[in-house]
TrEMBL record:
Compartments where located: Secreted, Extracellular space, Apoplast
Signal peptide from the UniProt entry: 1-24
General function of this protein: Dirigent proteins impart stereoselectivity on the phenoxy radical-coupling reaction, yielding optically active lignans from two molecules of coniferyl alcohol in the biosynthesis of lignans, flavonolignans, and alkaloids and thus plays a central role in plant secondary metabolism.
Protein origin, superkingdom: Eukaryota
This protein's GO CC annotations: apoplast
Record InterPro entries: Allene_oxi_cyc_Dirigent, Dirigent
Annotated family: Belongs to the plant dirigent protein family.
A family per Pfam: Dirigent
Main location: secreted
Residues in coiled coil: none
Name this polypeptide is given: Dirigent protein
Subunit and partners: Homodimer.
Gene3D superfamilies tied to this protein: Allene oxide cyclase-like
């Protein structure tokens, strides 16, 4: 016990100093919040499954190319450099007409010179039930021809404040003529 005493004292001193700096002498723009509103609730793990429809063709596309790929023909097969903006429906079942749960809004860029590898940055904006108006933010790497791709959920809003988690994406169908794809998303998130 005596061996650890100096360590303990130092830790206490550091905690005390930090608390003092933040709450006491801190600048006006920075304040610690004394009563954490999340503290009274316990964190839970939720699992969602839905289908993401990326439609590039037809009269009502939900994805559009906003930056063309690099003109360098060495990377033509991977479309390196291309960026698409998306407003993709999220549905309960793989069929396009099934119940709409929300939309995936954001963009993906073709970020690999060796394969079709995306960087995805999108918000799942939910429009149903208690999730109506809440969002989850996904930012990650998506090598689309791999069977299962994992990407981090880096945050959220509404009921998903302070969220963290991951998604697993697997292609349900892909039309190699139009580029249209339906992808199954399995989402695991910790939230309050
Ligand atoms: C790539 O581009 C170069 C220069 O424009 C051209 O000479 C070459 O034939 C092209 N290669 C392919 C595979 O298209
Ligand atoms: C979701 O919220 C919006 C805005 O508050 C509201 O107009 C809409 O009716 C709600 N939808 C559902 C299904 O609750
Ligand atoms: C598209 O898919 C069809 C059937 O699955 C296949 O025969 C064809 O080679 C594919 N085309 C390309 C360009 O990959």
């Amino acid at each position: 016990m005596t061996k650890y005493f100096p360590c303990l004292l130092l830790t206490l001193l550091m905690v005390f100093t930090q608390t003092f700096l933040v709450t006491g002498e801190g600048p006006a723009f920075l304040k610690s919040v004394k009563r954490n509103p999340m503290k009274t609730r316990t964190e839970k793990l939720s699992h969602f499954r839905f289908y993401w429809h990326d439609i590039l063709s037809g009269p009502n596309p939900t994805a559009m190319k906003i930056i063309p790929p690099s003109a360098n023909n060495k990377t033509a097969a991977t479309a390196f450099g291309q960026v698409n903006m998306i407003d993709d429906p999220l549905t309960e079942k793989p069929e396009a007409g099934s119940k709409l749960l929300g939309r995936a809004q954001g963009f993906y860029g073709l970020a690999s010179q060796e394969e079709v590898g995306l960087i995805m940055a999108m918000n799942f904006a939910f429009t149903t039930g208690k999730y109506n108006g809440s969002t989850l933010t996904v930012l990650g790497r998506n090598a689309v021809f791999e069977k299962v791709r994992e990407m981090p959920v880096i945050g959220g809003s509404g009921v998903f404040r302070f969220t963290r988690g991951y998604v697993k994406a697997s292609t349900h169908s892909f039309d190699n003529k139009t580029g249209n794809a339906v992808v199954e998303y399995n989402v695991h998130v910790l939230h309050f």
